[in-house]
Specification:
The complex is a heterodimer.
Chain A: H1 3-23, H2 28-40, E1 46-52, E2 55-62, E3 65-72, H3 80-95, H4 100-111, H5 118-135, H6 140-160, H7 167-188, H8 194-202, H9 208-219, H10 223-255
Antiparallel strand pairs in A: 1-2, 2-3
Helix pairs in contact in A: 1-2, 1-3, 1-4, 3-4, 5-6, 5-8, 6-7, 6-8, 7-8, 7-10, 9-10
Chain B: H1 2-20, H2 28-49, H3 52-74, H4 79-86, H5 92-103, H6 107-142
Helix pairs in contact in B: 1-2, 1-4, 2-3, 2-4, 3-4, 3-6, 5-6
The chains are: A mainly alpha, B mainly alpha.
């Protein structure tokens, strides 16, 4: 195999590593770093990568030949384990004589790695929501109600993600479901506090990741990525506020008061 | 007793989030500790100084520094610890109360809670910036 072919393979492998990280919610500066490090580890001198939350651009010069590669990345979800694994992989690849083919196999293994089973996620998501309502001063009945609300909303959102809805609509629907469940529970148990139930159960929707990544990108000098993630956070927050607001307003209009 | 209770609640909530975000199995408990300590700092400052944004700021610094420290110690990206850890500080309650004030047409309350919510979010942001800048300085010194 000639050198040109090998360089191409290396580029494809580093793009794959970058794609896995970006798709699972890594900061863009980390993706850029990883791609450059992977290419430089095998003797390529001129590597420049530019990553935005929606795509990877890479340009490489080696032996008087220019290569460039653009990869559009869609459907960002959050899976921090995969980021950690690719991080480990890049460290290993740089410090050893792993061949490109081996690296490719390793990355494919990471892609196919199982996440926590979905029921475990629903169960613990419910606990997260329930303990939040306690954290904000809810009582035992609020705890139970938020557990159900959190569990049901995570299940519903998982089902919804099959239909390719945008994240704004997803958050609106999620918060509408939460508010309806909270209203129902506040009628079943008199002593519940509707505020605490809603606050606890919207926590799985709030844009914590988008906020953190927006900041971490901005301070590394990636203002484009920082701004676009910041807008994402604002839109999610608006979606949640809209969903809760419209449901409560409708309820007040029809039944008069909460 | 109050603080122990709050610690446990925040610990379990953070663990719940770390499972939603699928963080590596051996890091779940560690991120829970980070998130719970950040929350304790938050309520402590909130009680002593009566300022929720100062609480969120110092809480975020705590989560950030613990996250960066764990990241060096266990060779994992810092986000693995920071993302679940700051979730308890995110002002979901403020967002909700603002919305509720708006639909009840109490616009002055809405402006008050809304601006407070915004300040809390900004303080979290600044806290994370400062803690990761501190860790970058240490990294440079080491090299």
């Amino acid at each position: 195999m000639d050198k040109k072919e090998q360089t191409k393979k290396l580029i494809v492998m580093s793009i794959l590593a970058g794609k896995i990280m970006l798709q699972n919610g890594a900061e863009t500066y980390r993706v850029e770093d990883t791609i450059v490090r992977l290419c430089e580890a095998r003797g390529i001198k001129y590597v420049h990568s530019f990553v935005t939350p929606t795509g990877i651009f890479l340009s490489v010069e080696h032996n008087n030949e220019l290569f460039s590669y653009i990869k559009r990345v869609k459907s960002i979800k959050i899976d921090l384990e995969k980021i950690a694994l690719v991080n480990d992989f890049s460290r290993k690849f740089v410090n050893s004589n792993m061949t490109v083919q081996e690296g490719m196999d390793y990355l494919n293994e990471i892609t196919n790695k199982k996440t926590f089973s979905k029921y475990l996620r629903y169960i613990f998501g419910g606990f997260a929501a329930a303990f939040f309502s306690l954290l904000f001063g809810g009582n035992l009945l609020d705890f139970v109600s938020s557990y159900f609300a959190g569990f049901i909303v995570l299940t519903a959102l998982d089902k919804l993600s099959k239909y390719n809805v945008t994240f704004f609509v997803k958050n609106v629907i999620g918060s509408i479901i939460i508010t309806i469940i909270a209203i129902i529970f506040s009628h079943i148990f008199i002593k519940t506090n509707i505020d605490k139930i809603i606050i606890g159960s919207i926590m799985p929707l709030v844009p914590g990741v988008a906020i953190t990544n927006a900041i971490r990108d901005s301070i590394s000098g990636d203002f484009l990525a920082g701004v676009s993630r910041g807008i994402e956070a604002i839109i999610i927050a608006l979606g949640i506020a809209f969903g809760v607001g419209i449901t409560l307003k409708t309820y007040i209009l029809f039944f008069g008061g909460i | 007793m109050y603080f122990i209770k709050q610690f446990i609640y925040a610990f379990i909530s953070t663990i719940g989030f770390s499972i939603i975000f699928n963080i590596p199995r051996d890091s779940i408990i560690k991120s829970g500790i980070g998130g719970a300590l950040g929350w304790i700092v938050n309520i402590l400052i909130n009680q002593q100084l009566g300022s929720s944004s100062a609480g969120a700021f110092l809480g975020a610094i705590t989560v950030g520094l613990i996250g960066e420290f764990f990241a060096r110690l266990f060779k994992k990206p810092a986000t693995v610890f920071i993302i679940p850890g700051i979730i308890p500080l995110v002002p979901g309650a403020g967002m909700y109360y603002t919305m509720r004030a708006i639909i009840e047409k109490k616009f002055i309350t809405a402006a008050e809670t809304g601006s407070e919510t915004f300040f809390i979010a900004a303080s979290i942001a600044t806290g994370v910036i400062i803690s990761s800048s501190i860790s970058k300085i240490f990294k440079l010194k080491k090299n």
